[in-house]
Amino acid sequence: MTFSFTFILIHLQGDKFKEAEEVFDNLLNDENSPLKPDQKMFNMMIYMFKKAGSYEKARKTFALMAERGIEQSTVTYNSLMSFETNYKEVSNIYDQVFACLSHTTLLSEV
Fold it and tell me: Whose CB among 16, 49, 91, 110 lies 3.0–4.6 Å from 54's, allowing a Cys bridge?
C-alpha cells in the first residue's frame, strides 16, 4: 500500500472528504509526481463521493477512470449503481458492464 493511498484512506475513515479529495486531485494533476491514482484509489474516491452525497463527482470520477485508461471493475460499477436513482443512469452503467464483460469474454475465447 502506498503512502498516498493510506493517506486518503485515513481521511476517508475520518470523514475528512475535502482533504482526501485535495490529495487525490494533487496526484491526478501533478505531472512530476511518481505516484498516480490506480483502480483502488479511484474506487475509494467514488465510494467517498457517494458517502458524501456528491453523486455528480462520483460520476465524473468514473468517467475520468476511462479517460486515464484505468480499468473499471465490478467494484467500480457496484459503487456507482448502489446510489443511482435515475433509471437511465443505471441502464447506462449496466450497458457499460455488459460491454466490458462481453469484450473480456471475447478476448478470452481467442
Answer: 49
What is the residue type of 110? V
* pLDDT > 70 in the chain, percent: 65
Please name which of 48, 70, 68 lies closest in space to residue 58, comparing C-alpha atoms.
48
Asked if 9 contacts 44 with a C-beta cutoff of 8 angstroms, the reply is yes
CA distance 9 to 107: 34
Q: Which pTM does this prediction carry? A: 0.71
Give exposure, 28-67, as e/b (b: 16+ Cβ within 10 Å).
Answer: beeeeeeeebbebbbbbbbbbbbebeebebbbebbeebee
Grid cell in block for residue 59: 460520476
End-to-end CA distance of the chain: 34
Distances (CA, A) of 81 to 18, 76, 87, 88: 23, 9, 10, 11
Three cell numbers, residue 8 = 486518503
DSSP helix/strand/coil, 47: helix
